[in-house]
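Follow-up to my earlier ticket, as requested here are the two runs.
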Amino acid sequence: MSTRCERDGQVEVGVVGHAGRKFRALGASVIGRYVTGYTRLVTGELALTTWGGKTTLACRSEVVREFRDGSLAMVFRLTKGRFVAGYALGDTGMLFRGELLVGTDQEDARRTARALADHFAERDTEDDLCWEEAD
């Protein structure tokens, strides 16, 4: 099995080769204010990485809410009143989906993280149901 990453602007694509076939999956991306990446614990803080494991965002992070399934509503605090708020499926190597917030405060960023977590948790549940119906 082989793995590699390809970049097209701000979008990363992970490529896995196995048994003579290639599989491609969307990796980390920044499109407008929307951020996608993968979580990793770095010196006690959660950071965002590319699909290939390179750190893309390592700053103060806060888990706003942890759900029973291990998923997280979280906020990354940037400078100048900017935050990245979103939802991660877990704390190590798991998908994070969020958005850049500008000109806001910590409490608003926390509310946004909780709202995004609710939104993506609902979408993930719908996706799971579709896969179960297909089986």
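Run two:
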Amino acid sequence: MIFTLSDGRSFDTKDVRDISAIKDYGQEKSSIELSRLAFSVYFKTGKSIQISDYYHFSDWAAAKKRLSQIREQIILLREAETKPEAKEES
């Protein structure tokens, strides 16, 4: 299934090999006000993408929740595609 991120990037969940844990990368070098949370999606081709959310210090929990929901959606879609179909008994 094609999964599209809010920034317009998309990928096929059947090509996902692994998904990392969410990591706090701390303050961005380009901004003293924003920090970054992110996780990576690794593909069977060897490529990867990083999915990030930026937050102000007091908004950490909201950013973590948003990223957790996206990560969980990807995991559930990938698992649904890799599970063998249940065979009906006749």
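The only thing I checked on run two: Helices lie at 60-82. Let me know what else you need.
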